[in-house]
Amino acid sequence: MKNRYIIDFDSTFTQVEALDELVKISLKGHPDKDKVLKQIEDYTNAAMDGRMSFTDSLRERVKLLGATEEHLHKLVKVLKKKVSSSFSRNKKFFEKHADEVFIVSGGFKEFITPVVSDYKILAENIYANTFEFDAKGTIVGYDTTNPLSQEGGKVKLLKQLKWEGNLYGIGDGYSDFQLKESGLIKKFFAYTENISRSSVVKNADHVLPSFDEFLYVNNLPMAISYPKNRILCLCIGDITEEAIAILKKDGFSIRHKASFEEKYVGDVGMMLLGKGETIKFEKLKRATTLKTIGYLGNAKDKLDLELCTKMGIAVFDDRKDNVNNGLFIPKRMADFINSGASYLSCNFPNIQLTQQKKAHRLIHIHHNVPGIMAQINSVMADHGINILAQYLKTNEQIGYVISDVNTEYDKKVIKALKKIEHTIKFRLLY
């Protein structure tokens, strides 16, 4: 049966509410700009939370716009820069599944179509409202016969379309949840990358902190190998809000704790430790999913760096107690997870990287013994893999190999690389 992915636009495909952005443009220099902005924001939230009918909310917001066609052109330029990060990095998915992706929104085609068309989403798959203009090009209203301009509009539209197959709804608002409530879609995914509405989240089949998560749970091709929202990052001890914000903004699942609690030992992927914090050898040894540690200060005598190296855990610290280490260290940790770069690690061979386009990045950490590189390349040759770029550095204990390969390969190659003797950790990055 055909799959159809029904995606909302405002605060889902894009990071913002388009009408809020439009009024910022149309009221630039207006003495009551802030007051009108607040009114529009209140109407938006009331509808999204289910406290006001969509029809009433839309009517009141359009009344306040005072916008023209020229303002809409400016808005489109803004929105193209405000596409949600996880949608942007999964552009290939939309290109490959163009006939399955549908934008269904209470927003307006005049600004939605030029934004999503960059992602090869078909014009006939965009369902939204349309503005009405006067002779001077000023917005004076909208097509009130369009079901999407009415309360429960998305439900009304899908009833008219009578789509068959597996229908999946992705959105941040109450109107998106109504599709699930009506029984017209198979699953509703509450999208929270930009905003989380408790009234919507509590009724969702699944919560999506990113579009990567949707692709992952539905076994669909994605730009990265594993959603960052599933990587548990423990911040322990005296950590500033600024440092935590850097990691949170990158999409990692953050827990700020006073100590390394036993319940997290088996699942932790990243750790940021405040100055003076220590981790016992026995507990660290059992943290087998841990990939990187950041230490806000000098990690010597606080961590067993030799054990970290043997386990393939990259450690970033600041032995000079730089005043900016609260910002510098989290960035290095995130870069290691995102690109594999180990630059300025205190225990790993240092590699600086550039991102290869149209490639997969494979990371292989192994004991520093002869012949590993030859085995890696032999596996790739046996599977007809074209290597675009390759990086190798070693220290006394480990070898660190990063291979950028062409996008066509059999998944059996991953199993073969993991089985190479002396492998410590293997990771498919993207």
From TrEMBL:
PROSITE patterns to which the protein is assigned, alphabetical: ACT
One GO term describing the cellular component: cytoplasm
Domain of life, per lineage: Bacteria
All copies of domain ACT, residue ranges: 361-430
Molecular functions per Gene Ontology: L-phosphoserine phosphatase activity; magnesium ion binding
Any matching Pfam family: ACT_AHAS_ss
Keyword field contains Metal-binding: yes
EC class name: hydrolase
Pathway: Amino-acid biosynthesis; L-serine biosynthesis; L-serine from 3-phospho-D-glycerate: step 3/3
Obligatory cofactor(s): Mg(2+)
Catalysed reaction, written as an equation: O-phospho-L-serine + H2O = L-serine + phosphate; O-phospho-D-serine + H2O = D-serine + phosphate
Keywords assigned by UniProt, alphabetized: Amino-acid biosynthesis, Hydrolase, Magnesium, Metal-binding, Serine biosynthesis
Transmembrane segments: none
NCBIfam families per UniProt: HAD-SF-IB
Name of the protein in its database record: phosphoserine phosphatase
Phylogenetic placement of the source organism: Bacteria, Pseudomonadati, Bacteroidota, Sphingobacteriia, Sphingobacteriales
